[in-house]
Specification:
This protein is of the alpha/beta class. The protein is built from 25 helices and 27 strands. Strand 20 and strand 21 form a beta hairpin. Helix 5 packs across helix 13, helix 8 runs antiparallel to helix 9 and helix 14 packs across helix 15. The longest helix has 33 residues. The radius of gyration is 30 Å and the shape is globular.
Amino acid sequence: MPEQQQWTITATEQPPEWFIQAVKQYTPASSGLYAAQLLWQRGIKDRQQLTAFINHKAYQPASPFEFGQEMHLAIARLQQAYNTKEKIAIWGDFDADGITATSVLWDGLGQFFAQNTQLVYYIPNRLKESHGLNNQGIDNLAKQGCKLIVTCDTGSTNVEEIIYAKQLGIDVIVTDHHTLPAERPPVAAIINPRYFPKEHQLFNLSGVAVAYKLVEALYQSLPNVAKYPLEDLLDLVAVGLIADLVQLSGDCRYLAQMGIQRLQEDFKQPAAARRRPGVGRLLELCQKSGDRPTDISFGLGPRINAVSRIQGDASFCVELLTSRDVKRCNELAEVTELANARRKSLQKDVQAQVAQKLTQLDLSTTSVIVLEDAQWPAGVLGLVAGQVAQETGRPTILLSTEGAEEHTSLREAAPTTTLSNRGHRGAVGEITSLSSNSERAERPATANSTQNSALALARGSARSVNSVDLYQLVKDQAHLLHRFGGHPFAAGLSLLVENIPLFTAAINQQLRQSLGSTTLTPTVQADLTVTVADLGKELFLELKLLEPCGMGNPVPKLLIQNCWFENSWHRNQQDWQGKKVQYIKAEFDIRDDSSRSAFPGLWWGHYKDELPIGRCDCIAELDYNTFKKRYEIRLIAVRSSLNSALTTQQWLNAPRSLTPFILDLRNQEHSAPSTQDSTLIIEDCPTNWDDLRIWLRRCLATSRSTSGLENQQQLAIAWSKPNHQPPNQIWLTLVGIAKYLSRTNQLVTRGQLLEKIGISDQTLLVGIKALKYLGFTVKRQDRSLQITWHPSDSAENLADEAVGRFLAAVREEQFQQQYFAEVPLSTIVAIASYDSK
């Protein structure tokens, strides 16, 4: 289970009045105070900075030739290829940054070199190959007659492979933003912003932005060749920049602002008129409009990334992003959406298994979480590791030993296949390598790079938190690894299965020594304190000045204190085709004493029962839901208010029994508590202990004193012995109601069904599943259900089984209610006390 989160609030320094007034010019409908505080906190402290930050038209981007001699060398080599009509290969990468970078070079260089004949591209297979160049791929390109390779988002440290390419007569231009090599490799040019000082406006460029700068330089060097404007590439640049989570400052912010504008303009066009119909269709599928950075970070980015995570081969994504064939793009977008649905399902399964393994760890003695399993698919481990790291406050490494015994030597040659009949425009032959799937594992570790024997390899992903340099941690254990690579926040690695225990012990010892007395705890940072009355359009537009947000400029986190939730409900979100529940979300209204009006919100991945009962504090992000066309908050963290009543532990440790505070009024038709205005009454017979614990927590949350028990809220259990109908009769009643609703085309709420039939919500869900086997279709419309019936006997056996499960659920529920009608009060007190500890 996650540890108790530590909440912190960013220290607020009141900005001077002139700065507030300067910000207010951009927020005429509001005071501008909140935006001014945030901007001042984040280092924007003069008028020139402010203007350039908010208005991209006032920003002066850097020339691509800021890269100096390396950019001149790259352009000279491309001009040589242009003049001699050499064949060029783009070598990309399989994540969203690499896919968009490949697409930028495909479209951009495609203005100068004939696509498919002079220009081809290759995306490594995530599940079979590493990031970066490999010799088998270079051999394949040599056979096709390629004389120049242009990498994007990869290649900086592939020194051996670059030398190998040179021996085959192939030059290499590297465009990348990852770790620099110790010495300049023997390339035609290497364009990498890591060579700049950290303060330089180009230092934070991602792979797609570096690729764009190369194309920009070529446009300037050969000004009369290209048919399409350079700016047509900016939407792809924005997608890659935001999806890669780079720091959006300097040219990164400028390019993202320009790109989002292009993305939105294109989406507003009819599908047939869009420059990028594939991007437009993806936005439609995820119910986004392209005008928000979150449309990329929560919509486009995860979908592009999902393809390689699930299928390995993501080559077709370049066609999806660049083709103008609407029909073909729609087909590819649907394949992408299906991959994303599958990714969600796998991620959910792995999350559940990891959560179970975490219960067996003592986090008080664990600095780095290292977990392994033979069934975990490697493609989703990074996503789950990131979530675990955030929840626990500890760097997390998840390893898959799936098929470990099948891994062979990294250098073993493997057969190649062609993609010519697979609709992948410009993609070169697939290279089937059996190397590890690391985040940036371009170099093998020396000690375990066995060349000739079979290796039982585990491979996985690592994610960091709390400013721990994870890459350095992993790198220091290189002697135990087969391959590794990455950056301070994320890494990929593979190692012999037999080395996992030693690696786990060593990396934990190393971090403990470096931390000293520092304790790792999950932390949530709030930027501003607001009230419910502050929430809405004005505040949203004010905070929107900071967009696009990213590393170094995060989405503002709002602290709302002494609030409470009403009208909460949750729903299961199904996959794209509605076949399987993928995740859940709770929806609610939030209120506090600042306003008589409530404000809507949601909490992804949580049930409504997880919301505190009574007063609480929460941290949330303010957002605009383009699908529902409303402003809402997205809950990040919540806890009972520090000013609320006694905690459960305080109550249980008090020097008197719980019994006086739980009144037993069961089966007493006319009895009532003597102090009814200060007593919570349970009239519905529970079906499990969780139902009772919810009331116990509510009683505690509404307690009137934190210093004693004299005014402690009382809880009265006042249900009567249930008068149950036979389960068969309940089933017939449910079927009869469903037929009536289908015939009359009326809607019904779940609450109305529960009241009419007299069963629990969980049992009703079992009954609805049984109805579907009889030909009923149940669809949700807002908070109501629409039931239609098309009789069918094609699944009679399955229907009988489903009805049997419903009847069994009813019998179990009735048994439990009978138990709670008769269980002694002493047992209720004992169980409630034990479960609340």
